[in-house]
Specification:
Distance between the termini: 60 Å
Mean pLDDT: 81
Subcellular location: Cytoplasm
Family: Belongs to the TRAFAC class OBG-HflX-like GTPase superfamily. HflX GTPase family.
InterPro entries: G_HFLX_dom, GTP-bd, GTP-bd_M, GTPase_HflX, GTPase_HflX_N, GTPase_HflX_N_sf, P-loop_NTPase
Shape: globular
Number of strands: 13
Helix content: 40-55%
Structural class: alpha/beta
Largest sheet: 7 strands, mixed
Strand content: 15-25%
Keywords: Cytoplasm, GTP-binding, Magnesium, Metal-binding, Nucleotide-binding
Subunit structure: Monomer. Associates with the 50S ribosomal subunit.
């Protein structure tokens, strides 16, 4: 059973469509939905005792065996709800973590998900155990009270978190070495970013003729894939990476855990921000992506908007021009309308990438000229020592 609480935020999903898609992606079957309004969350039960009773009645009526909340619950709220409803209660955060755990394929991806899940569970051990009696310390029956089971479990989880962080640190260093190698080779790096299921992988496959996994589902791609793409008009190749999709209320643990993967976006020369143009909520999805980019420090990387799924837009709503500009955080950025599935509008994006590559090379050449003539006017050349 899906439950959403409207606190008056503009992005509230009154139909719980996205939560339903997340549940189906995780292999669950939504049988009922319930939406309520509150000014602030109830400290104990998140929704209040009266609404909790209604949730239990509806769940019993439709035969639900688990309750999923569209918002993040505190450990205490989750524990209290499970006691009140007499059935498992989980939130959006755990649902996303479960999907990531199912989809991770690479060693790095599995490590990142493992770390995020360990950090999530470390705050929720209280509700996992009913046998919290103290162990006895000392030899035989002598000695004082030992550690409780929960203290042992916390220590085990903290040790596991430390080990996983150490292993991720090695992976991060390997990725940094690979990025430095690309920089030494003077490679122009482009990263695809966007809301989940916007069609990034389909676009990636279409422009670089790759065979990365693509599907009409949330979080089809978790592991970064990088390929070379030759731009004929620029007579050079660029490096283009397909990254994990973003989503509203992406758990902070995942943002931190996927730092090594998301670093591809931070270090890129250009971001191709892929948008599902057929989704009525795409303006809010764009803002959610911008929010995550700010969190990872990639807000200053130049962007180009790629409005995908042109073929899915009603004919009378399709734009008359397939290339224009769009105001993004107060700045006008280039925008292209494409259909990655049909191959429509991709050549215009390739041409723009070629122009960006040529412009960057010109800037680099200007930098080389400045180094040869250090007395030249820095402002005129637009370079700093």
């Amino acid at each position: 059973m899906l439950v959403g609480v409207d606190f008056g935020f503009p992005h509230f999903d009154s139909e719980l469509e996205e939560l339903g898609l997340l549940a189906q992606t995780a292999g669950l079957n939504p049988v009922a939905r319930l939406v309520c309004k509150r000014k602030v969350p109830d400290a104990a039960l998140f929704v209040g005792s009266g609404k909790a009773d209604e949730i239990r009645m509806v769940a019993q009526t439709y035969g639900a065996t688990e309750i999923l909340f569209d918002q993040a619950l505190s450990p205490a709220q989750q524990r209290n709800l499970e006691r009140h409803l007499q059935m498992p209660v989980n939130d959006r955060t755990l649902l996303i973590l479960e999907i990531f755990a199912q989809r991770a394929r690479s060693h790095e991806g599995k490590l990142q998900v493992e770390l995020a899940k360990l950090q999530y569970l470390s705050t929720r051990l209280v509700r996992r155990w009913s046998h919290l009696e103290r162990q006895r310390g000392g030899i035989g029956t002598r000695g004082g009270p030992g550690e409780t089971q929960i203290e042992l479990d916390k220590r085990m989880i903290n040790d596991a978190i430390k080990r996983t962080k150490d292993r991720l640190l090695k992976v991060k260093k390997q990725r940094a070495t690979q990025r430095r190698q690309r920089q030494r080779n003077d490679t122009f790096n482009v990263s695809l970013v966007g809301y989940t299921n916007a069609g990034k992988s389909t676009f990636f496959n279409a422009v670089v003729k790759a065979r990365a996994y693509a599907a009409d589902q949330l979080f089809a791609t978790l592991d970064t894939t990088t390929r070379q793409m030759y731009l004929e008009s620029a007579q050079r190749s660029i490096s283009i990476s397909d990254t994990v999709g973003f989503i509203r209320d992406l758990p902070h643990g995942l943002v931190n855990a996927f730092e090594a993967t998301l670093q591809e976006a931070v270090d890129a020369d250009l971001l191709l921000h892929v948008v599902d143009a057929s989704n009525p909520a795409h303006p809010e999805q764009i803002q959610q992506v911008q929010k995550v980019l700010r969190e990872i420090g990639a807000e200053n990387v130049p962007q180009v908007l790629v409005f995908n799924k042109l073929d899915a837009i009603e004919p009378d709503r399709r734009p008359t021009a397939l290339a224009d500009s769009y105001e993004l955080d107060g700045v006008q950025v280039p925008r292209f309308f494409v259909s990655a599935a049909k191959g429509q509008g991709l050549e215009a994006v390739r041409e723009h990438l070629a122009q960006a590559l040529v412009a960057r090379q010109a800037a680099l050449d200007a930098g080389d000229a400045w180094e040869i003539a250090p007395d030249a006017d820095d402002e005129l050349l637009g370079n700093a020592p």
